[in-house]
Design a protein that fits this description.
Elements: H1 3-29, H2 39-54, H3 59-76, H4 84-87, H5 89-103, E1 110-111, E2 114-115, E3 119-125, E4 128-132, E5 140-146, E6 149-153, E7 163-171, E8 174-178, E9 183-192, E10 195-199, E11 208-217, E12 220-224
Parallel strand pairs: 3-5, 4-6, 5-7, 6-8, 7-11, 8-12, 9-11, 10-12
Antiparallel strand pairs: 1-2
């Protein structure tokens, strides 16, 4: 599939989601579905579905977001009672569980002040960090920023094959990706009350393609050299 076709598919997916959410908001404002529509439920389900559909490796995170959205909707319908003031510590528990799970995952090999693993996997919840990737067989990865941030330096990495894909979810957070001038960047990020920017320079020897997919909700993603 060409980058142009992928760009169109990503734009259509994000556009359809925004049209659906906007239509539901309009119907709610008109009082037609006011009794059962919950804005935050729609946002969480929207972001979760994008994760499930766009990245197989980010599906677990997507299902968690969908589950949160379902809880908000059940509360709106009066089937259960979910009070953020009471249950916000659950977010702390989830963040801790993710950290424990990641601690038992195979660690990427490091050397020379950078990570040599071909697959990038970063989850920033209520915090963040800086990461330098030096893999000579880089294949892509996943970036999740939930009320957190990341700064990923890929300028010393080399893509295995012609193309690599990074899936980004920036929810009330975001970050920066730094790429070499020998890479062509295809930005396929949908934004909802957020944004993304592409500030890279392509040198005359640019022969590799990095595809950035995902969604930015009340957050942002920037790609630069």
């Amino acid at each position: 599939m060409s980058c142009k076709t992928s760009d169109a598919n990503s734009a259509v997916l994000s556009g359809v989601a925004l049209v659906v959410v906007g239509g539901l908001l309009l119907l709610s404002q008109m009082g037609i579905i006011h009794d059962w529509f919950n804005f935050w439920a729609a946002v969480f389900v929207f972001v979760g579905l994008l994760n499930v559909l766009q990245s197989s490796k980010a599906r677990s995170w997507g299902f968690i977001l969908i589950g949160v959205g379902v809880l908000f909707e059940l509360d709106q319908l009066g089937l259960i009672h979910v009070s953020f003031q009471v249950y916000w510590p659950v977010l702390v528990i989830v963040a801790g569980a993710i950290m424990i799970w990641r601690a038992y995952q195979p660690a990427g090999e490091s050397g020379g002040g950078g990570v040599l693993s071909p697959h990038l996997s970063v989850v920033a919840i209520w915090g963040g960090g800086e990461y330098r990737i030096r893999a000579k067989n880089f294949r892509g990865g996943d970036l999740v920023a939930f009320m957190g941030g990341f700064d990923v330096d890929l300028r010393d990495a080399e893509i295995e094959g012609d193309q690599a894909t990074i899936n980004v979810t920036a929810f009330m957070g975001g970050g920066v990706l730094r790429v070499p001038e020998t890479w062509v960047v295809s930005m396929q990020v949908g934004a909802f009350m957020g944004g993304h920017s592409l500030k890279t320079r392509e040198g005359p020897a640019a022969n590799k393609t990095l595809v950035i997919k995902g969604v930015a909700v009340m957050g942002g993603v920037e790609v630069r050299n």
